[in-house]
Design a protein that fits this description.
321 residues, alpha/beta, Rossmann fold, six-stranded mixed β-sheet, five-stranded parallel β-sheet, elongated, transcription, Peripla_BP_I
Length: 321
């Protein structure tokens, strides 16, 4: 039996979830790797019991929203998101505190435990994101972009389907997808593969970091290889286009290219790419509005999913041969 709501302890959570108190602590702090099934069970128990860390409630407003974004492989999306969020926050009387993913769960723990921010916004959240349990336990309002509780869902599957359909309509029968690791972008891949099966396309998936581009193209662009590439990493797009040019391959004359990127990255390419454009600005505005609404006690509403769209550009054309 648990304590009255508001004084629930880690032991209460552990007993209800059927795990040890140390396991609950590790889930919250992210100090050790916990299996996905156990993590989800602990998260659900935290939500059900209403567990909050001591000191997790904020007595007075700091006038600050913390924003956790990654600054490694998808810099364009992160910066567009943060810029839009900053403008909206300013209009609503808040400042933003940037927390990079490089600090992991420790960075957000410092923010919430010291009450440095009134609410936390997390970009690119996954189903088993290690940052989520700590946020739940902190008592700080949290808005996630991607998946999880209190999330603004981003549905990439229709964009994946549209991409495969577009390339199939141009006569491409073999397509290579240079894959990322982010969870919601893998849902793009699920939509892409579904449409590829329907259209009887050969769809290859290959991880590719910027430094691996020459090797990846060596392996893919064989005599019977794919005639179209889907580049799913902003950092990989420029070296792919440059390497194709170095090899004397015309885009889209010899190889078609589709990008998954921010509007800003698309705008800065020599050829405007056909692209699945991530609506980073819209997400930044909506995230801040939702966070502030929760602080003001507005009735919670189910956030409508954001659906990235395929925007046609100059890098896709009819398949060769």
């Amino acid at each position: 039996m648990t304590n009255p709501r508001g004084s629930v302890t880690i032991t209460d959570v552990a007993n209800a979830a059927g795990v040890s108190a140390s396991t609950v602590s590790y889930v919250i702090t992210g100090k050790r790797t916990i299996s996905a099934a156990t993590r989800r069970r602990v998260e659900e128990t935290i939500r059900t019991l209403g567990y909050r860390r001591r000191g997790g409630s904020v007595a007075s407003r700091a006038g600050v929203l913390a924003v956790a974004v990654g600054l490694d492989r998808h810099l364009g999306v992160a910066m567009e998101f943060f810029a839009a969020a900053a403008g909206t926050a300013r209009e609503l009387g808040f400042d933003l505190l940037l927390v990079t993913d490089d600090t992991g769960t420790a960075g957000l723990h410092r923010v919430t435990s010291a009450a440095l921010a009134d609410a936390v916004i997390v970009l690119d959240a996954g189903d088993d994101d290690p940052r989520v349990p700590g946020l739940l336990a902190s008592g700080s309002p949290a808005v996630l972009i991607g998946r999880g509780p209190s999330a603004i869902p981003v549905d990439f599957a229709p964009a994946g389907q549209a991409c495969a359909t577009h390339l199939a309509g141009l006569g491409h029968r073999a397509i290579a997808h240079l894959t990322p690791s982010a969870p919601h972008r893998l849902r793009y891949l699920a939509g892409f593969r579904e449409a590829a099966v329907h259209r009887r396309l050969e769809a290859l998936s290959r991880p590719c970091a910027p430094e691996d581009v020459p090797r990846c193209l060596d392996e893919l662009l064989t005599r019977d290889g794919p005639t179209a590439l889907v580049v799913h990493d902003e950092a990989v797009l420029p070296p792919v286009l440059a390497e194709l040019g170095r090899r004397g391959l015309r885009v889209p004359g010899d190889v078609s290219v589709v990008a998954v990127c921010s509007a800003g990255v698309a705008d800065h390419q020599r050829l405007r790419p056909t692209a699945v454009v991530v609506p980073a600005r819209e997400l930044g505005v909506r995230a801040v509005q939702l966070a502030v609404g929760r602080l003001e006690g507005l009735p919670p509403a189910e956030p409508e999913p954001v659906v990235p769209s395929l925007v046609l550009g100059e890098t896709t054309g009819p398949a060769v041969g």
